[in-house]
Design goal:
Blueprint: E1 11-14, H1 24-51, H2 58-86, E2 91-93, H3 94-127, H4 132-135, H5 138-164, E3 173-174, H6 181-187, H7 194-227, H8 232-240, H9 243-260, H10 266-292, H11 296-312
Parallel strand pairs: 1-3
Antiparallel strand pairs: 1-2
Helix pairs in contact: 1-2, 1-10, 1-11, 2-3, 2-10, 3-5, 3-7, 3-9, 5-7, 9-10
């Protein structure tokens, strides 16, 4: 009968990255610079892909979508985190918290699915080059991307509604810098969350494992095909077309696994902050660098774009 006396909270207190006042200004400046760099880097990638017809290929179409995702992804958490570092009020409304939770997992699951689509694109390019333009036509790429966004939208909607129905009355202090599943389920909900955890784990696990499985299988076939290439230069050239994607995939799944596959406790939440910072702040910043640092085609297009801007001015 105790459930009759439960009172739903109207807001949550986000403790943020650190509660040490002397570190907060330094962290604020650091992550503000990182966020600006994220926006500039990813917006430049989107602009280059759109403006240059030579980059109107499946690989760069997916890359443009990935950059767009990274802009939204970092913008879901970083601005609120920065506001908490400089302001005394570190609260977020109940609706605001679950809106943040929804968009964070919507964009995160969409990115996982998009990365699997990109791995399939690399598989077709390397293993079935003669049929590449048929199997990866514009319509197919558009459909794959739309499916990624749609599945991410529906999954996150179901997940957020399921968690929001819990009575949050244990406490309303989130020892995190944004609203995420682990602190909300384990540290806040005063009801039995076992069923919710199982449901979320099944839904999240099925989507995550499907995306991961497609990625792994694609690269298994890619490596098997590379082994058939006798010349070292030919093998190196073929591998260079997917090395950037492999790096992004390893970083993405590595940080996600560190955050969500471990046991949950007050201590583990603190450790999870580090991994969460990596895939919410650092990964969106590194992705455009990883894809462009050795990509001469993108370098050429960037120089061309900047020259146009100077002439226009």
């Amino acid at each position: 009968m105790e459930g009759l006396n439960w009172t739903r909270v109207s807001q949550f207190h986000l403790l943020g990255i650190t509660d040490l006042p002397h570190l907060q200004p330094v962290i604020f400046v650091l992550f503000l610079l990182v966020y600006v760099f994220t926006l500039v880097g990813n917006l430049s990638t989107v602009a280059v892909v759109i403006s240059d017809e030579k980059l109107h290929t499946p690989m760069y179409f997916f890359l443009g979508n990935l950059s767009l995702l990274d802009i939204f992804y970092s913008s879901v958490t970083v601005p609120k985190m920065l506001a908490g570092l400089v302001g005394e009020e570190k609260v977020i409304s109940f609706v605001g918290c679950f809106t943040q939770l929804y968009f964070f997992h919507f964009l995160g699951s969409t990115e996982a699915l998009l990365l699997s689509s990109m791995s399939y694109d690399r598989y077709v390019a390397i293993c079935k080059p003669l049929r590449y333009h048929v199997l990866m036509g514009k319509l197919v790429c558009a459909q794959l991307t739309l499916i990624c966004w749609l599945i991410g939208f529906l999954y996150s909607l179901a997940e957020t509604v399921l968690i929001s129905l819990l009575p949050f009355c244990k406490k309303n202090t989130v020892t995190y810098f944004f609203c995420d599943i682990k602190p909300l389920l384990k540290l806040l909900a005063c009801a039995d969350t076992f069923l919710n955890e199982i449901t979320v784990m099944l839904v999240t696990g099925s989507i995550g494992m499907a995306a991961f499985f497609i990625t792994v299988v694609s690269y298994v076939f890619i490596f098997m095909n590379l082994m058939k290439i006798h010349s070292v230069s030919g093998r190196s050239k073929a591998f260079s077309t997917c090395s950037s994607h492999i790096t992004v995939v390893i970083f993405f799944y590595g940080t996600v696994m560190c955050t969500y596959l471990g046991p949950t406790s007050e201590g583990s939440i603190e450790k999870d902050k580090v991994a969460a910072l990596l895939f919410t702040v650092v990964t969106p910043t590194l992705n455009p660098l990883i894809y462009t640092i050795r990509n001469q085609e993108v370098h050429r297009c960037l120089r061309k774009l900047f020259r146009k801007e100077k002439i226009w001015k």
